Amino acid sequence: MDRITLPERPEWRAKAAELGFTFADMHGEPYWDETSAYAFTLEEIEGQIEDPCTELHGMCREAVAAVLADEALMERMGLPRLRWEFIRDSWEAGEPEVYGRFDLAYDGKGPAKLLEYNADTPTSLYESASFQWLWYEDQLAARVLPEGSDQFNRIHEALVERFAEIFPPDTDLHFAAIAGAPEDYATVETMAWAAREAGMGAHYTDLEKIGISDQGQFTDAEDRVIGTLFKLYPWEDLFADEFSAHLAGAQCRFIEPAWKALVSNKAILPVLWQMFPGHPNLLPAFFADDTKGLADAAHLMLAGHVTKPIFSREGASVTITAQGKVLERATNRDYDRHPMIVQGYQPLPVMGGFRPVIGAWMVGEACVGLGVREDRALITQDLSRFKPHFIEG
Prior knowledge:
The chain folds into two domains: 2-264 and 352-391, no CATH class; 284-344. 31% of the residues lie in helices and 24% in strands. The protein contains eleven helices and 21 strands. The chain has helices at 12-18, 42-68, 71-76, 84-92, 125-141, 155-166, 182-197, 235-239, 260-263, 268-275, 295-303, and strands at 2-5, 25-26, 29-30, 36-40, 99-105, 113-118, 172-177, 201-206, 211-212, 218-219, 228-231, 253-255, 285-287, 305-309, 319-322, 325-329, 340-344, 355-363, 366-375, 385-387, 389-391. The protein has a five-stranded antiparallel beta sheet. Strand 11 (228-231), helix 8 and strand 12 (253-255) form a beta-alpha-beta unit. The protein is globular. The two termini are 13 Å apart.
């Protein structure tokens, strides 16, 4: 793994505007940044990212079964008891997952370490699946990348295959996101693009325009019944919404399924460590209120740890502590009200003054691609830059 300085494509911003990639620059700062790229060997991709992430996803599925069988663990998930049966039913019905993103600390030397699993509403999908592939094709054609290079990226193809596997042809799917959020819209449109290619009908609707019919079914802004809904709206927020009272009777199939509320939840990290202690791709993790009674946790608290709420987004409410000293504390504390976990601190590698996080994309139960985000700060945040990658020939 290396960070390599490369020339930018001369007209990439015009191309981004043409394609609707309106958030390539945000708040006067670059979000998409192709002044450099991350290079990997094929061995690193296959042996250190792809295979371990496929294994990690299987471990997460085992953890779901364990949590659902243990009421005390379900309590730890911080989800309303009124929705437990709905979650359990989705698991027992075998409702299939579509996508997710593992965030990993990886330096090209030791095993990749799981930081968290964005298993419900991960964004940066368009950048990963589409725009960085276009970058790769353009730079290969311009001979900026050496002949024989490749990119770990079959995200779009895998999504098309997954939709075709799950749904009969001509199934109507609805894709919903919050209005006025370009990154969210790019994510749902990327999903809808794959669904259309798989032969599905794909309809966009603003989340706030979803209503309830007289029969208790969800409807879109045109009063069409929603039979299948991809919602870029976290389960924990939906469960707290008044609409959640209609979930069980809405006759609606959800992407992602409700059981994903357990693995997108950072409370799954202590469960994974309890089930698979010492696994090379896991960091020690404990529920914060358990740390005083466990010797391993006490050692972690002294050596270096990250405190995270079980629900949060984009690094909010995260604090990094080492040797009793706070190294960095997120300024956004919107999620401080939630229960906390502590996780072993794995410093990110520093390359060119930036710290990269690997985002490994899962479709179904397999790892199919990656994207890289980097930041000068210790905590990766919402404006951290997206970097393209390639596999060396």
